Amino acid sequence: MKVINLMGNKNTYSCNAYLVLGTWNSLSDMNTLVDIGTDGSIVDEIESMNTGVGKHPVEQVVITHNHFDHTGGLPVIRKRYNPKVYALCPFEGVDEVLKDGQTIRMGDSDFEVVRTPGHSSDSLCLYCEKEKVLFSGDTPIRIRTIGGSYSKEFVCALERLAKRNIRTIYPGHDMPIVERVLEIMRTTLANVKSSGCLNSL
User: Fold this and answer.
1) Per-residue confidence at 197, pLDDT binned at 50, 70, 90?
2) Domain count within the chain
């Protein structure tokens, strides 16, 4: 599996958009965008890449949640590549609604959909057991202090993620997390559970 962080227009506030490809760009791989960004400016980067002979550069899109900095460029991507679009809730441009626990193929690997309501009610993470990779979107993964209010659903989701063997986290913002990943996850879970203020979404 190859993961390419698309930068887009650096003068516009946006999220990390990740292009997930198979290691060998085989015809059976599913070229997938995880999030899109604000304005569709990632198209120029995609066009300059080798995404596989005879393949659509972007065959599907998975949205981690429906905030504008993650979805604003969707009309541009749909017009250019006509991909199938997945998200956890329906909104304009989404073709199929994902379910918690569902498996989706990205690149040459299978990913588990994990609903993580917290940052938004429709937030999700994508976990690949084979690659030990997590796409976290804007789900709070690094919570360093005790305090705040969290939903029971979010705590349950963190408990599930903390049991996974994760070596790399690709967040919606900032650089990939590649060091002390399990320690970070366990610290976050401990701080959330110690906050003692649980609400239902």
Assistant:
1) low
2) 1
